[in-house]
Every structure is written in C-alpha cells, then in structure tokens.
Amino acid sequence: MTASGLTVGAETTAPPAARRRRLGASGYLLITLGALAVVSLVRLLTGAEDLTSGGTVGAALTAAAPIAMAGLGGLWAERAGVVNIGLEGMMVLGTWGAGFAGYQWGPWAGMVFGLLLGALGGLLHAVATVTFGVDHIISGVAINLLAPGTALFLSKLYFSTAPGGGQKQSPPVTDAPHVSVPGVSSLLQDVERRHWFLVSDVAGVLRGLTVHVSLLSIIAALLLVATLYVLWRTPFGLRLRSCGEAPVAAESLGVNVYKYKYYGVIGSGAFAGLGGAILAISSSQFRDGQTGGRGFIGLAAMIFGNWRPGGLALGAGLFGYTDAMQLRGSDGVHALLLLLAIALLALAVVQFLARRVPIAVVAAVLGVAFGWWFFASDELPPELVGAAPYVVTLLVLALAAQRLRMPKADGRIYRRGEGG
Amino acid sequence: MGRLTPRAVLLGIAAPLGALVFAALVCAVILVVTGHSPADTVQAMITSGKRPRTFVNSINSATNYYLSAVAVAIGFRMNLFNIGVDGQYRLAALLAAGFAGATFMDSLPGPLRIVLTIAVAMLVGAAWAGVAAILKVARGVSEVISTIMLNAIATYLGQYLLLKLAVPVAGSNNIGTRPITAGGQVPGFAYPGSTSKVYGLVVLAVLVGLVYWFVLSRTRFGFDIRATGMSESAAVASGVSVRRMVLYAMLFSGAIAGLVGMPQLLGSAHSYSLDFPAGLGFIGIAVALLGRNHAAGMALAALLWGVLDNSANSLDVAGVPKEIVAIMQGVIVLSVVIAYELVRRYRVRVEQREVGRALGTTRVPAEVAA
After folding, report:
1. Does B333 touch chain A (CB under 8 A)?
2. Which residues 153-182 of A have a C-beta within 8 angstroms of B?
3. Is B309 helix (H, G, I), strand (E, B) or coil?
4. Does this complex have an ipTM over 0.95?
C-alpha cells in the first residue's frame, strides 16, 4: 500500500467489475435515511438524545472540517503518486501560521498564512521525494519531526512577548463569522424536542447543518467539491491523476510528471496547512500540540474513503462525529457501541450475500462482541472513544481491502527517463 | 560495496558529515535571521555539555534512542516500515510497569523480577507489532498505515489502562503505576561529579546491538532478511518465504521496541506515569536513518542525538529557544537521506563510467537502477 513496502499478501486480483449498479441521488438519500432510522432507533432504545441533536451535529461539522482538509491534502498528494505522511507536520505549520497572522490581522489573514506555511512544508516534501527521489515515508517522518520543533521555536520567539500570548500559545484569534439559514432555528428545535422517531432526528441533523455554521466549514465543503471537479473533470486533473497511476505512460504522452507531482504535493501541503488554520481559528488560538494526530486521522479518512473526495467527506464526517460525541458525555458514547455492533452485523449480512464468507464471519463475530460489550457495560470510557476512528480504519482495511483501490503507482519513486 | 577502497570509505562518511554541516549552516542562518548569535548558542551548548550531569543524561538518552533505532532498523533492513515502535514501547512499558509493580512480585528474587519484567515488555511489544504483521500477511494491509493507526490506538488504550492501574503519585497531580520496589530495580553506574547515574541497562543496549549485528551479518536468518530487503523477487526465487520473514521481522522489531522504555523504567522512573517520555519511536527512525541501520553507526547517531538533546536544555536560559536543536535534528534527517541518495547516484555514475572504460565503449550504457 505504500512506498517501497513489500508486496506480500497484497490482494492483487481486481474484484469482478460486474453487477455493481451505480447509485443515483435517490439511492444515496435512501441509504442516508435508512442509516438515520437505525440511529434513531438506537436513540429511542438507549435514551441518548445527544446522538442526533443539533448541537452534536454542529460540533461534528466543526470537528470534521480540519480532518477533511487534511484528508484532501492526502488525496492531492497520493493521486499524484506521492505518499504524504508529513500531513501532520504541515498541519502544525498551518496552526502556527494561523495563530501568527490571525491575532494581528484577523481570521482571513490567518487562513492565508496557514495555507502558505503548509504549502511550504509541501514544497519541502516535493523537493525531497520528487527531485531527490527520497523514500516518501522517510521524508514524511522527517517533516513530522521538523515541523513541531519549528512551530514551537517560532512560537517562543513571537508569542511569548505578545499580549495574551505565551511560550506555547498565541494571543487569541477572533473566530470567523458564523451564518444561519434564517427562520428555521426555532422550528427545527421545536421538532427536535419532541423526540419523535426519525422526524426529530432529521430536524436535529438539519439544525446542525443550517444554524450557526462557521464560514470555515462552508469553505471546507466547497473545497471538497472543487477538488472533485478539478481532479476528475479537468484536463489538469486527468494529467495529475495519470502521474499517480502510470507515470511512465504519462511521460510517454508528453506530461511533465515532475511538474504535476510538484503541483500535487504542494497542493497537499496547502490543504493540510489550511486544515491546521481552520483548527486554530475555530479554537481561537494556536497551541503547541493542538493538532493531536488529526493529520493522521485525515489520512485515515482518505483511506476510508477509498481515495475519493466523496468517501473522504464521509470518513471525515464520521470521525468528526465520534470526536464530537466524545465531548458530549458518556450516554451517547455508550450508545455508539450498539451502533457499531449493528453496522458490523449489517456488513456481515452484506458480505455473506456477496459470498465472502470468511469476512462475513469475522464481521459477525466482531459485531456480536461489540453488542455484548454494550449490554454488559453501563458506560464506555471516553479514553477509548478517541481510538474509534483508528479502529474503524483498521477494520475497513482488514475487512474491505479488496474494495479499496489506491492509485497504482502510489508511493513508488519515479525518475524521469527510467521507464522500461 | 564490500570493498574498503579509500573512495568507498570517503563516500560512506561524506553523506552524514555533509548533512551535519548543512544542518549546522541552516540553523546558523535561522539564528542570525531571528537575532541570535550562533557563536553564543554553540558556546552555551558546549558549556552545558561539559557538565558531568549532561554527560550522564546524554548516555541515558542515547541508550533509549539506540534501542528504538535497532527496533526500527530490523524492519528497515527488509524494507518494512515499523512506524509503530512508538506505540509498541509505550504500551509495553506501561504493562511491564504494572506487572513489575504488582504486589505479588515483591516476594520474588530480584534478578528473576527483572528478567520477568523485561520479558513481559518484549512480549507486549511483539504482540502489538504482531497485529500489524498479521494484517499485512493475511490481508495485505500496509504496515505503515496500520502502525500509524496502532500508535494512536496505543495512546488512547494507554490512557485508559493507566487510569485502571494507577495510584496517585505523592505530592503532585500526576498518576502512575505502583512503584517498583527496590529488589526489582536495576542499579545504575555512578559517575563522578553527577548525582544522576548511568542506567544499568546500558549493558542491555550494547548486548542488543551486538546480537543485532551478529544475527544480521552472520546468520541465515539475517541473510534472508537482507536479501528480502534488497530484492524481494530474488529472495523468493531462492526459497525465502516472504510472509514468514515479514511476520518474524515484525515480531522481533516489536520485541526490541518493548525494551525501549526499560532502562528508564527499571533504572530511574520505577513507575509508568503520565510524564513518561513519548515520541522515542520517531527518534529511533531518525537515528536508524543517520546510522544507516548499522549497529555501530546507530550507536554514534544515538549518542549525537542524546548530546544534542541534553545540552539544549540550557539554551532557554540563554535566551535562545531550545527548539533550535529540534530544527537541527529535523534538517539532519532530511538532508542525510537526500545526501545518501546523491551519493548513490554519483556511485552509479562512476561505476558506469568504469564499466564503459573497461569495455572500451565510449557511450555510457543504459542506466542500471541500483
């Protein structure tokens, strides 16, 4: 799945392409409603009203934005064939940049600075991996070592003497404006309070998505759509992706592979930096260690989403949601166990119908185990909830690995003119 | 590459030395730009480095870094990236501390307690690495991704387990496992002029280094590992089971990773608490890269890292943020890998030219990827 890794055990045979109908918009809507109905049922069973409250959904949206941006960072680099585990470091640079410019010139300057610093980190990664052909993982690790040190160094220089700042944190940054769709707030809240099956849940989700939404989250959503358009609907995107799939073939058709890899990796850094900036601005300052592994969660969201923007958004939303639930107390968190159990059992059924019996068995056993855990315990320690995104990603990798398809030349070192 | 011609030796040391010089230059420029004097900074670090206490702490840090580097290097040698050393050693240290501190251990003889503690740590480390190994062997999941995920899971699992195992640490709001009583500790070596002692388990680090060198360069198993790393297809053709090698290499790497926390746990901390150092796994990667996965090279690199880290502690007092050293370390890692690559390309070109001359052809033959 990466760089110079060994290919042992890799499932190289492609799954049969047959009988997969593409879902239309109504299909997705149905699935969403179905999932929401399950969540609603769990909510009624457990009494964990926080599961779909507007507050939770709003918090999830805020938490998801930086993760989605880090994921986009991963997507841009890996679609151009460069693995970027330096996302975390580039994100740290972004948080510092947002703190530095943000407290002096406002949140928008902070966004721009975060983006630029992240892009600088991306440039470094590009120079090492594309020009010098260094192993992608090693360069990423080096950037993850370098960036936090640099951020803390600069923080001590510029923030310790600033009013309201400190050695490890910036002065306060004003948050970006929040917007609401006018007139829906009280109505939705009213419906939500009735705790009806499904209806109240839809109201809660809608309220979270329409009331007091940060402009930063909206920008993040727009960037997801823009990436989908640029990478999949423009000649530029086609060339960039061709560098990740078959660089030698691209070269033979006259594509300047180095150039597109540079675009991809610098863009990757810019997105990661932007993610850091969004994180710093929405939590009103830069703090040392603020990213807390979100760069890696972004990477996980991208893998979860099968190297596609839509799946990535779903992954980021899911991970943002667990993040939000963790902050909202143990009732809802405990109910998540039941949700996970149901999801695994559903997966087991689907896999069984698709005649993948071993996977179905594993999923069923795990599902029963999580279900038993739910009924045997009264609460889930919040420390363990933080691990959820990572466990889910491992499960996806382990159970659905054949369905995942990363860019074919992802992580391979490419040198001009060396193609067979 | 086995020939020790003067040119080979020169090329071998050119890369690390060049990287060190380059990193020092970058840091000097950063210091000048931010209004500090590089000379004063170096002076402050040298003054601090001369203190016996700094020396002892440097050796101790280097011990940890070295073990971590060896754990990483086992994987590197066969192209396997164990990014998860970090999670493996933290989980191992926590569980070993809980085990060693348990009351039933107090009645056992001292050496047995120490051996058991170390064994538990190695088992936990190997088990945590084993998850990644099984995922790779059975499902083809990249070990880079799975170990990154396992690192994060270890962090949260560690927090949870610590709360379960913890007793309050007297006089602070820190929490830790029940302290290991006298018999289960490993005494250190005193060093004149310093109150802190050199970890007793520095011996273990040396031993691990020797075993690493012996196994890799003098046994069939080590040969298989290196062969797999250099050319997987050639290894398979000569009858090596890559799956088995991946499993073993990952388990050994995890077992050594389990040792990383031991010198500190048994030598000075005596319990695992919230402030147990994190991030040693990533330092191990840096040290292994700088030392080129070579037993002696990594020892030098670990010492360098230890000295840099510990003499930096005086910098904050001198008015220079001590993170300048972290920047320097990052630049060293990045520039050393670039330098190795440049040297490799240069070597290939020189060899091609020699071959061309020997064959009497004027044109350089098509490049053979090394």
Report:
1. yes
2. 153, 156-157
3. helix
4. no
